[in-house]
């Protein structure tokens, strides 16, 4: 009787596990949703869907912020779809900065692999500021949705690896959100307490109109 019970239990466990999906490699041709992308058929999945090789190459930092982010999010790395994680490389040239920004969909962990980076975030409850200059080997966490930034604190290129708690963490850079759109200067002046000259200067630098 005991052997019969064991055989039945084993059959039930095997049956349930054989029907469970091990992964959901993203079908990127379809539209993404907050729940992720549709799954590709397992017969169309290869080992390359679970490998990303781009983080070994430095990003191009010849831009207005002297910084670059090389993402391995679901759009570049379909194997992370549905797994609740992703990763990226951060390159900061001397004087480079990742301006104040948020990731609406994920918390972030930053690991410094070269140079020094001053990083910080602002709490939403009391606007408390948490700032630290990180050296090689240091790690800092940024809670989901909070404003945060990173600035090169060394005279050399600084590099970090950042991981996120979502395959598609989202990104909104505050400066670009304010000044790289067509929101009227008058409304921006009233909502930011900046004067007309400052608003129009920032719109010109960041490509905004109005």
UniProtKB/TrEMBL annotation:
Molecular-function GO terms, alphabetical: manganese ion binding
Location in the cell: Secreted, Extracellular space, Apoplast
Residues reported to bind oxalate: 103, 108
CDD domains assigned: cupin_OxOx
Signal peptide location: 1-20
Disulfide bond annotation, renumbered to this chain: 24-39
Entries under Gene3D superfamilies matching the protein: Jelly Rolls (2.60.120.10)
Family, as annotated: Belongs to the germin family.
Protein name, per record: Germin-like protein
Organism placement in taxonomy: Eukaryota, Viridiplantae, Streptophyta, Embryophyta, Tracheophyta
């Amino acid at each position: 009787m005991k052997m019969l019970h064991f055989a039945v239990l084993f059959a039930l466990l095997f049956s349930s596990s054989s029907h469970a999906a091990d992964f959901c490699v993203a079908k990127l041709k379809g539209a993404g949703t907050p729940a992720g992308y549709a799954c590709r058929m397992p017969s169309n999945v290869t080992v390359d869907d679970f490998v990303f090789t781009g983080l070994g190459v430095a990003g191009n930092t010849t831009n207005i912020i002297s910084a670059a982010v090389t993402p391995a999010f679901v759009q570049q790395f379909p194997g992370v779809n549905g797994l609740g994680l992703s990763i990226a490389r951060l390159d900061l040239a001397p004087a480079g900065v990742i301006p104040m920004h948020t990731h609406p969909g994920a918390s972030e962990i930053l690991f410094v692999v070269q140079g020094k980076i001053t990083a910080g975030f602002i709490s939403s409850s009391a606007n408390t500021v948490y700032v630290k200059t990180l050296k090689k080997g240091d790690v800092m966490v940024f809670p989901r949705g909070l404003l945060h930034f990173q600035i090169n604190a060394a005279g050399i290129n600084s590099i970090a690896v950042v991981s996120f708690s979502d395959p598609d963490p989202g990104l909104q850079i505050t400066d670009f959100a304010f000044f790289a759109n067509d929101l009227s200067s008058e409304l921006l002046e009233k909502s930011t307490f900046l004067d007309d000259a400052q608003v129009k200067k920032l719109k010109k630098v960041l490509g905004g109109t109005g």
